[in-house]
Amino acid sequence: xxxxxxxxxxxxxxxxxxxxxxxxxxxxxxxxxxxxxxxxxxxxxxxxxxxxxxxxxxxxxxxxxxxxxxxxxxxxxxxxxxxxxxxxxxxxxxxxxxxxxxxxxxxxxxxxxxxxxxxxxxxxxxxxxxxxxxxxxxxxxxxxxxxxxxxxxxxxxxxxxxxxxxxxxxxxxxxxxxxxxxxxxxxxxxxxxxxxxxxxxxxxxxxxxxxxxxxxxxxxxxxxxxxxxxxxxxxxxxxxxxxxxxxxxxxxxxxxxxxxxxxxxxxxxxxxxxxxxxxxxxxxxxxxxxxxxxxxxxxxxxxxxxxxxxxxx
Length: 313
Ligand SMILES: NC(=O)c1ccc[n+]([C@@H]2O[C@H](COP(=O)([O-])OP(=O)(O)OC[C@H]3O[C@@H](n4cnc5c(N)ncnc54)[C@H](O)[C@@H]3O)[C@@H](O)[C@H]2O)c1
Hints:
EC number: 1.1.1.37
Structural class: alpha/beta
Bound molecules: nicotinamide-adenine-dinucleotide
Protein name: Malate dehydrogenase
InterPro entries: L-lactate/malate_DH, Lactate/malate_DH_C, Lactate/malate_DH_N, Lactate_DH/Glyco_Ohase_4_C, Malate_DH_AS, Malate_DH_type1, NAD(P)-bd_dom_sf
Helix content: 40-55%
Enzyme class: oxidoreductase
Pfam families: Ldh_1_C, Ldh_1_N
């Protein structure tokens, strides 16, 4: 099920999912336009059976029996707006959707794209709401940070003249600015950069969202690359659920790897979600410094998220 399927991310994401032989049933939910999006996609000659659901009354039906939920619902960032500006609106949307998931598909893998992933609110909301219903499983709730990895792979490949499909750069930490930590020292194939180039590359990966917001000049934030990243993450989840071994993706999850309750690291995925958190691995001195800075900032945003959640009760 895609929640927010008619949006800038939701539509191309739904197209990519419809195009995959891994998907048998594709359920599209939004507060607007889903009948049209579903009718359009249903004419594509691939296996997935597409159904559109629109408005709060149809949310339960959109989720019943679903194995994987992907959530690009929300309000995107506009120029001049920080992720924090979006905080209240998006957190409230996510709270409603979390409640519906807990009631209708408590066993499903939950992949949250909606901001603010930078603050842990969406992941936290799922934890709180699912605990309320006694169905919380930390191995099944993911804040999708794949776009950071996709960007890191693309930028490294561009600088080194490599095939981007063969490059893999783990990205850990959070999902905003300085909390995004590309681990270039752990990249495959192995790559090396002089210190100034490494700093510039790291900064570009951390600020890549703004590059797109500026270039779109008022027409929204990253949608196509995010749809690609969301689909990549979903396919990895589906592959692992189908028994494929050795599937690893980074995501923002409940974590014990650092002092932060929520932290993104590479995860080994399996039939039941996270099989093993692979942790931070061996860091370079440069990366260790980035992690130390990010932990301070992440702890602040986790606290802010907790305060927000406490006030909403
Ligand atoms: N995780 C990431 O890397 C990443 C990257 C880019 C954008 N985002 C976030 O993804 C979200 C979507 O971005 P977009 O550009 O597609 O925005 P958009 O405005 O084009 O689409 C959002 C969709 O959500 C729908 N929606 C709103 N309230 C809803 C609700 N209660 N239930 C279901 N659907 C609802 C809207 O009708 C719309 O179709 C935003 O929160 C944005 O900030 C995340």
